[in-house]
Amino acid sequence: MIPLMIDLAARRVVIFGxxxxxxxxxxxxxGEARVTxxxxxxxxxxxxxxxERIEVECASMDESALESLIGDAFLVVAxxxxxxxxxxxxxxxxxxxxxxxxxxxxxxxxxVPSVIRGERYLLAIxxxxxxPAIPRFLREHLEAAFPHLDAMIGVQARLREDVKECVGSxxxxxxxxxxxLRDPEAWSWLSEGEERAYQRIWERYIxxxxxPY
Length: 213
Known about the structure:
elongated; alpha/beta; two-stranded antiparallel sheet; 7 strands; 5-stranded parallel β-sheet; single chain
């Protein structure tokens, strides 16, 4: 498998299962796609605007009937407590031409990763189900080690554009950007605010007052 960032706007995600797993999957996709949850019952978390619900018992359905429920879905998620049903849903999804994620049963062709999200970044982590604790560990580590990561991304984006006006060499521009990332003081200045940090970084790396790189 390879990682991809996919725009799901206007695409339909169908989730089979209205329990805790289905609710987590719906929360992951809600707001990014058209989400339909199919189940005989639904947790309160699924009873909210923005999530379409179809109340039906799927356990006795054959693959043809399941495929009719899938319709034009781009992605199908099997999140029921019955692995055999999940596998039938997967076969129906493939027959319908949809991608498939299986919470319990035969492996699908899509994994739903753990996500670390800021205002300016998105990191997806997966261990293929081998160690669910690892994504949480990495998230906590990154949050503790880089509390101002969003601000640094903003500084880097601005600096990348501004140095084009005064640094002619592409190699030199790249060296400056890398040096800022390796500078512990530059990271500490971000606690004073993004604008103040940018001014101090500019003074150190561009105006010539100090060029430690």
